[in-house]
Amino acid sequence: MPAEEKLPHYSDDLSKPFRLDTSTTYVDGGSGDRYWRDYLQLQCFPIDRFAPDWPAKPDAFSGGLAAYAVALQELAATVLELVAEGLGLDKSFFLGELIGGGTLMNVNWYPPCPDPSLTMGLVPHCDRPLLTVLSQGDVSGLQAKHRGRWIDVHPVPNAFVINLGHLMEIVTNGLLHSVEHRAVTNSSAARLSVVSIIMPEMDSRIEPLPALVSEEKPPKFRPFLFREFNEAYTAAAANREDVLRLFMIHPSDTIGSQN
Questions:
Q1: Which PROSITE patterns does the protein's record reference (predicted)?
Q2: CA-CA distance, 229 to 206, in Å (whole number)?
Q3: Which of 43, 45, 197, 220 lies 20 to 30 angstroms, CA to CA, from 101?
């Protein structure tokens, strides 16, 4: 799209249902650091709620987005049913208000960076909800933290990456861990990724599942509303340990290591 047609959508107001922006909101300590990323952020599901906010141009945008959003929601529900069954729960356990808050999509564009040693594409962070669904294209750039070191998550053709988020770690009482990840830059190729974040209702009550709590395994996290968590996540600049510690019953405990 021509720059003059994109400019009216440019905004750093997180409350807007459709916007263009650059860098990232989550910067430690307000340092002013900028990151090598342009992105389109929009609410994409439920379609009847958010489609009126989508732009009319280009012509194929709304139809393609609607079809993708529906298929994406079905995929996420299937994955959550499998996770629930694996935990010994009813397969529909996660399919209520924990994914009923709408789906937020970030379409990330990482242009070639003249000097990748100077900046990153996206800061290390964990996603907020139970899970996110990532289409990372065919250019490497995603890294995940594994036992204290960063490893490349290479693209697999025709496959999605599923990231477990903070809420999955909390509701499973630490049985499953949120995945810390980041995006790095390169000097030779542009990278496009599409991240779909399956959000809970803001007033959803979040706490460890009673079925996963016992005398031997007491709850590690206190109950809270997702609204409170959302505010804390932004204030902590999405730092994994800082976010989880705010909701731990014993904040001095060690945060679960990532497998």
A1: FE2OG_OXY
A2: 9
A3: 220
